[in-house]
Specification:
The complex is a heterotrimer. By secondary structure, chain A is α/β, with parallel strands linked by helices. In chain A, 30% of the residues lie in helices and 22% in strands. Chain A has helices spanning 47-54, 80-83, 98-101, 108-120, 125-138, 144-149, 157-169, 187-204, 215-221, 248-256; strands at residues 2-15, 19-32, 36-40, 62-70, 73-74, 91-94, 175-179, 207-212, 224-229, 232-238. In chain A, helix 7 (157-169) runs parallel beside helix 8 (187-204). Chain B is globular, with a radius of gyration of 24 Å. Chain B has helices at 2-29, 47-57, 63-75, 89-124, 129-143, 146-160, 179-217, 220-227, 232-269, 275-284, 288-316, 318-321. In chain B, helix 7 packs across helix 9 (232-269). By secondary structure, chain B is mainly alpha-helical. Chain B is built from twelve helices and no strands. Chain C has helices at 2-20, 22-25, 57-93, 95-110, 113-124, 128-138, 141-156, 158-166, 170-206, 218-227, 233-261. The two termini of chain C are 24 Å apart. The relative contact order of chain C is 0.16. The chains are: A alpha/beta, B mainly alpha, C mainly alpha.
Chain lengths: 321, 323, 270
């Protein structure tokens, strides 16, 4: 039973007079309850757009088609009012820059409690405070009382992100969307937040959707990895390491991350550039950069087969879940 | 926050010193020691007045001594006596102060309330007919000479359709009115002056609020607020609005000099018994002490207003209030 | 937005032209009095009527345009000069000099401008020249701040250091590198400065503190008009309208220029 089901989702952005940017091209995806999956890809691959579509937070100049079903209701067709009962209630979101995502002129107390008040209709001040402090403690904040009364600018980056997580989970949603949650944080804090997410996912049985460009981060937190390129999903499998991946792009991503154990002096790079998203082509979008490119790649557009979109995928032993 | 306030207070001192220097310099700037040429005057400066002026400013003493005497007087608000009626300048200024304050504060309030409403609604209805109309409207208001508008309205309301008073702050039978009637009477007299002031002042504020609001609405925290599933009303009128209104507070302080300065033109037209009119009258009669007194008082009011605005801002913006 | 610049520019140019070419548009001299026709309403011979001394209002307005325009432009030039000077000195040298100049700016901003002008006029005497100078002396603060900010930011840019290394003289640095960035905003401020100066001058003249009779100024025609609002509405209506149109055109021009020189901002999100 899927909690989220995406069918043929396409999102275009209007640029200027007549041009369209094809950010997402007919994406299909199903996510189950309690499942942790990561969406990985480089900038511009469409992962953020995909995340935004989940709660219909797309920009004003976007045109979308297809369906995004949460609990069997199509998010894309909902009015703003109807979306109010999805956002924060069914799915919570945390963003990349916690300092920018928290309103600087309201206290942590106000920002947590306003969410609870809006959705759970609780008005009792003491109850609200109790819930808020509990949430803050749950996200690993040590001086919950002090943070509760603070303003965002008085908190460290890690604390701010924990507050964001507390807010996102305040109304017990079943889905948590984390859009590059650690990119703006220090490396040590990154690790803490990832551990926190792991714990919370387990304790609350969340469907966790992690958006990131960092493949290792993705593997640390999730078993199922979705790789996106040029607005499409090119791989959707359960993988732990390079050998478990099938798409050349995924393999290349593994290659370019430097391994501390190896003695290489140069960084590997995927040659070439991301294709122009304004054009629709009848071939594989990764063709020009692929080290495994073959004849079929230029003649037709590959479909998703067995979780990979490639004419010449790597074969390997896949771990069935 | 204490540091912030302290810093602000300290900054005032050089400004005060500067004001004394400027006012002092202006007195001594005049060519040939107050000799007038090319001027049609109603009241010529009598030798007697000149003598009194010399004594007042100690013009026969060396310059630096004159300056310190001036500063000493300045601190004690002693500007000497008026040339016209020999009353202490301070008294004359203080008795006109309430009227000016009333006019300016009420105008300020109207400008800000209306300006905020127009700014916010224009931001929400961007590029609509309403928005364009408001922009044009405030633009016109900003370009219209206030004294012309005043005269035209006077023509309208005194000649053609006499329903609003066009002069003074109270009606002639003020003293026999009850308290309620008195209050109503003053309000009645305030309508035109406030309207004229507000008409010109709206443009700047509403435009500022509009762009501030648009800025807030496109920030990451607003997107995050939508993602939290908060009702749109709350997002716009609570979360975004508070952010956009904070800088408006400092605008309040900055608008004060403009208002006080501008008021003298139509305090004169409307026979409003305020400081501006006093300044004008004393200018016409070359009552130098009173002129200095009014200008200095105006500067003080501005400083005070700015200080209040800055302190209010410090209180309201948590980023300054707490560390 | 270009429409704004065009409209404003055309109107402004027309105003200036009509001021310069005043004698072409009217056969009346602004001084000629004819008491027998005083306060007569507009007709074919005097299209804006006559004033209390029988002078033709229309020609007084045309010649008044000359004065108002001149005062506006020269006052703005003076303020621009002072502003650019003080601003660049403050920005370039920084430190104590900058501090002193900025305190000076604060002081100027604390005393309400009109009061300051009033004081200066009283002490220096009202005349066209004094009005120009005094307005110039009291309205340089915006330009000064702008120039200072520009100079400071350009100073930080690497290529100025590189130029210094190569040994270019300071003058060259200023003209070649800093000027182009500043020119646009200066034009904007100057345009608004002209409209402000016209408003101020007419206000002062209205109160008898600016242009003195018999020289005509839109403001001082209104002075007389004030006393005759019951009988000679044309003395109030037309000069004020002229002031309004002039100020409005320069303001629109200024707005248009400001949008033109503003770096395009990002697109909106939600």
């Amino acid at each position: 039973m899927s909690v989220i089901e995406i069918k043929a989702l396409s999102v275009d952005y209007k640029l200027g007079q007549k041009q369209l940017l094809h950010a997402l091209k007919s994406v299909n995806l199903a996510i189950g309850a309690g499942e942790a999956l990561a969406i990985v890809g480089e900038s511009g691959c469409g992962k953020s757009t995909l995340a935004s579509s989940l709660v219909n937070l797309l920009a004003l100049n976007s045109i979308s088609s297809g369906t995004v079903l949460i609990d069997n209701k199509n998010i894309l067709e909902m009015t703003n009012k109807e979306l109010e009962s999805v956002r924060g209630v069914k799915a919570g979101t945390i963003f990349q820059d916690p300092a920018a995502s928290l309103n600087p002129v309201f206290s942590v107390k106000e920002q947590i409690e306003e969410t609870i008040m809006a959705h759970l209709k609780i008005k009792d001040k003491l109850k609200l405070k109790e819930m808020a402090i509990k949430l803050l403690e749950e996200t690993g904040i040590k001086e919950a009382q002090r943070v509760y009364e603070s303003y965002p600018h008085q908190l460290s980056g890690g604390q701010q992100q924990r507050v964001m997580i507390a807010i996102a989970l305040s109304c017990s949603p079943k889905i948590l969307i984390a859009d590059e949650p650690t990119t703006a944080l220090d490396v040590t804090v990154q690790a803490q937040i990832i551990e926190l997410l792991k714990r919370l996912k387990k304790e609350r049985n969340l469907s966790l959707i992690l958006i990131t460009h960092d493949l290792h981060l993705a593997l640390d937190l999730c078993k199922r990895v979705i790789v996106m390129y040029a607005g499409e999903i090119v791989e959707d499998t359960i993988m732990q390491n390079k050998e478990a991946s099938a798409h050349p792009y995924t393999r290349a991503l593994f290659e370019i991350i430097p391994d501390i154990n190896e003695n290489k002096r140069e960084f590997a790079v995927i040659p070439g550039e991301v294709p122009d998203l304004k054009m629709v082509m009848n071939e594989c979008y990764f063709k020009n950069r692929c080290h495994k490119v073959g004849e079929k790649c230029g003649k037709a557009h590959p479909e998703m087969v067995n979780g990979v979109r490639c004419f010449y995928p790597y074969t390997k032993e896949r771990v069935k879940s | 926050m204490k540091q912030y306030i302290l810093k602000r207070l300290l900054l005032i001192i050089p400004v005060l010193i500067g004001i004394t220097i400027i006012t002092f310099s202006i007195i001594h700037l005049t060519p040939g020691g107050f000799v007038r040429t090319n001027m049609e005057m109603n009241v010529k400066v009598s030798p007697d007045s000149m003598e009194r002026l010399k004594v007042l400013y100690g013009l026969d003493k060396p310059l630096y001594e004159q300056y310190f005497k001036w500063v000493w007087r300045f601190i004690r608000f002693d500007f000497g006596e008026s040339f016209i009626d020999n009353r202490p300048v301070l008294d004359k200024v203080l008795e006109r102060l309430p009227a000016t304050l009333l006019l300016n504060l009420v105008s300020l309030a109207v400008i800000f309330i209306l300006g905020i409403i127009i700014g916010v609604t224009s931001a929400l209805k961007r590029n609509s007919f309403y928005d364009r109309f408001m922009t044009l409207f405030t633009f016109v208001g900003y370009s219209v000479p206030t004294f012309w508008l005043a005269l035209i309205l006077m023509m309208l309301f005194a000649v053609i359709w006499p329903i609003l008073p066009v002069s003074g702050i109270t009606s002639f039978n003020f003293d026999v009115m009850s308290l309620g009637e008195q209050v109503a009477d003053v309000i009645w007299h305030l309508i035109l002056p406030v309207f004229i002031t507000a008409f010109g002042g709206l443009a700047y504020i509403s435009r500022y609020v509009k762009s501030s609001m648009i800025e807030s609405l496109t920030q990451q925290y607003t997107i995050a607020a939508y993602a939290k599933g908060l009702p749109e009303n709350k997002i716009i009128y609570k979360n975004a609005l508070k952010n956009s209104l904070l800088p408006v507070i400092t605008l309040l302080g900055l608008s004060l000099p403009g208002l006080i300065g501008g008021s003298f033109i139509f305090e004169t037209i409307f026979a409003w018994p305020g400081m501006g009119r006093l300044a004008y009258e004393s200018a016409m009669t070359f009552d130098y002490p009173v002129i200095m007194g009014t200008v200095t008082m105006a500067a003080f009011l501005t400083l005070l207003g700015n200080l209040i605005a800055d302190i209010s801002y410090a209180l309201v913006d948590p980023r300054i209030r707490y560390k | 937005m270009n429409k704004m610049i065009m409209t404003g520019a055309i109107a402004a140019v027309l105003l200036i032209l009509s001021a310069i070419a005043a004698p072409l548009f009217t056969s009346y001299d602004y001084k000629t009095q004819d008491i027998s026709i005083r306060l007569s309403s507009p007709d074919t011979k005097h299209i804006f009527g006559t004033d209390e001394l029988g002078r033709d209002v229309f020609s007084r307005m045309l010649y008044g345009a000359r004065i108002s325009m001149t005062v506006g432009i020269i006052a703005v030039l003076i303020s621009a000069l002072i502003g650019i000077l003080l601003g660049s000195v403050a920005g370039y040298f920084g430190g104590l000099i900058d501090n002193i100049i900025m305190r000076f700016v604060d002081i100027m901003l604390t005393i309400p401008t009109l009061f300051l002008i009033l004081m200066l006029i009283v002490f220096l005497g009202p005349s066209i020249i004094n009005v120009m100078i005094i307005i110039g002396l009291t309205s340089w603060t915006d330009i000064a701040r702008l120039i200072r900010a520009e100079v400071m930011s350009v100073k930080k840019l690497a290529y100025v250091d590189a130029a210094k290394l190569i040994g270019l003289r300071k003058r060259t640095i200023i003209f070649k590198h800093i000027m182009p960035n500043i020119l646009g905003p200066i034009f904007v401020y100057m345009t608004f400065g002209i409209s402000g100066a016209i408003l101020t001058e007419s206000g002062l003249s209205f109160l008898g503190l600016g242009v003195q009779p018999p020289y005509p100024s839109w403001g001082n025609i209104l002075t007389a008009g004030k006393d005759y609002i019951h009988t000679a509405w044309w003395m109030v209506f037309y000069p004020g309208l002229a002031i309004f149109i002039a100020v409005f055109s320069y303001n629109i021009l200024g707005e248009g220029l400001r949008d033109y020189f503003n770096p395009r901002l990002k697109k909106e999100n939600k």
